[in-house]
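3.2 Worked example (two chains)
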Amino acid sequence: MGELATYRSMRDFSRTPEPSGGREERGADEEDGRFVVQEHHATALHWDVRFERDGVLVSWAIPKGIPPDPRDDHLAVHTEDHPMSYIDFEGEIPEGEYGGGVVHLWDTGTYRCEKWNDREVIVVLDGERARGRYVLFQTGGRNWMMHRMDPPEDPTRELMPDRFAPAAPTASHLPRHAEQWAFEAAWGGLTVIVVAQGGRARVHDDTGDDIADTFPELSAFGRAMGIVEAGIEAELVAFDDDGRPDPELVGRRRSLKSASALRRHADRHPFTLLACDLVWLEGHPTDGLPFADRRRLLERLEIEGPRWRTAPSHPGDGRALLEAARAQGLPGIRARRLDRPYEPPLFIPA
């Protein structure tokens, strides 16, 4: 049986529900076996890939998940061997324990081993979500890289751009032929493109710059999206002590420079992400689709959390929404043409 002393020395099994492993466990031969990928919401979200081999699960932690594209290698950190009984483990590791956080099964399956030595591992995965030929190769110490050797399963998949910029609204009045439009409230916040990728969130302003450091509370949104890759137009809104949207808090937040000042402001005046539109999804730009189609794709993401949600969209006559915005003291509403690709929405002041 493989060596599990390191694994056991790092855990208090009277507190953690993780299995300690037993003598009865047996592993795979050297040609194939089972594998598991576990989504681990620890201090930093990551995905653990574990291969059944020589009586243990040989393990790597992959911060951005299994790479779906051979053009994009992902860091893989070699971790301690785990017991075979960990292959179907799900649960919550208590805070204060090693790896404290929630563990979910992300994928399971079998693998065929083509090469295995101390510096390089080549396997063919046959899981429900992870499939294809991969190589893990050492780059130094515990740091390895994971590379997909096959073409993407989706041959039309594209690499996500490094920069996005939201379309700036155009001041207007209520459009004619209201049945061709969808309307949403404008809250006086900051319009951005939020990119969710590999459990992380980037926040692009109208210049295309990534200002994620300005909004530390949005890192939780990236973790909540998990492995989903999406570019979402959103309005970031902060509320004052009376629960009203306060546009001045946008300028105040962006004027802060130090990480500690940003964290304090985020604790006192956290911004809420209101998802309005979708410009990228799982390796494909969506900005060329009609808004009606983009909206359906956005709603399928089910964006709903403590500080993020999908903004309501109202197809048809926007007059009632405009009156409601006036009554609530909001700046106005936005209108998007249902049959048009991504373009600047109309802004109708209240």
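3.2.1 Second chain
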Amino acid sequence: MLTGVVMAKKPTLHDFVVKDIYGDDFNFADLKGKKVMIVNTASKCGLTPQYESLEALYRTYSDNNFVIVGFPANNFMNQEPGTNEDIIAFCEENFGVTFPMMSKISVKGKDIHPLYEWLTNKKKNGVSDSEVTWNFQKYLINEEGELVAYYSPRHDPLSEEIINWITE
């Protein structure tokens, strides 16, 4: 038996606290036991209509211990230029978004948010390296807060693969 050795716990999603779109703390530890989809969003993107599919997915499966968390980001061609207030008004008025939306962040580059650094870096998440290539890239996190998969921005949120993962 080893004594005096502390094994470092691999970081999980549940270790992160972020700011929601209203400026309040959002503690991912509160989502223990739920499957989570994290998606970077933008209001002026050709993929913006995915908000409708994301909201349909959330409304259908939120009672199945599933939650979507949106992160507005302005990393791609200035497609999310507004303030948090502008963004939430747009989401609610145009798509009836009810899933949790966070404050605008950076999902790549020198100012990448620590959560996205974890999502995209195998040394940190223990699963895979990835690069956020555009708005609406989807990351799937299991009930234990571990990254399990990611899907490209054009991948339909209502795809069979994602629905099967939620319902398995």
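3.3 Remarks
Strands lie at 17-19, 25-27, 35-41, 66-72, 138-141, 147-151.
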